[in-house]
């Protein structure tokens, strides 16, 4: 049995805001997105935010970096 994955409230919105401001997401944010995808309790708004972030990464508008 896999352990339950719980996101910090507001973390998806924080990642979206950071990506819009800087054009980057940290490697830790990548793991947060993976946790968000696995979280079955996401609101519709959070699902849309995760999808926007993933599309932005896929299109090259947002880069994932190792920098903190």
**Overall domain count:** 1
Numbering strands along the chain, what is their spatial order in the largest sheet?
Answer: 1-2
Percent of residues in β-strands: 5-15%
User: What is the overall number of helices?
Assistant: 3
Sheet with most strands? 2 strands, parallel
Shape summary: globular
Order of helices and strands: HEHHE
Q: Mean pLDDT, as a whole number? A: 81
Separation of termini?
A: 33 Å
User: What's the count of strands?
Assistant: 2
Structural class: mainly alpha
Q: What can you tell me about this protein's structure?
A:
This protein is mostly helical and 68 residues long. It has one domain. The protein has 3 helices and 2 strands, in the order H-E-H-H-E. It has helices at 11-22, 27-38, 44-58; strands spanning 24-26, 63-65. It has a two-stranded parallel sheet. The chain is globular.
Write the layout of secondary structure elements.
Layout: H1 11-22, E1 24-26, H2 27-38, H3 44-58, E2 63-65
Helix pairs in contact: 1-3
Can you tag this structure with a few keywords?
3 helices, 57% helix
Give a brief outline of the structure:
57% of the residues lie in helices and 9% in strands. The chain is mainly alpha-helical and 68 residues long. It has a two-stranded parallel sheet.
């Amino acid at each position: 049995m896999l352990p339950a994955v719980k996101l910090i409230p507001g973390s998806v919105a924080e990642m979206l805001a950071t990506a819009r401001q800087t054009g980057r997401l940290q490697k830790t944010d990548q793991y947060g997105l993976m946790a968000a995808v696995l979280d079955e309790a996401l609101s519709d708004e959070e699902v849309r935010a995760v999808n926007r972030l993933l599309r932005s990464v896929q299109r090259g508008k947002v880069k994932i970096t190792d920098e903190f």
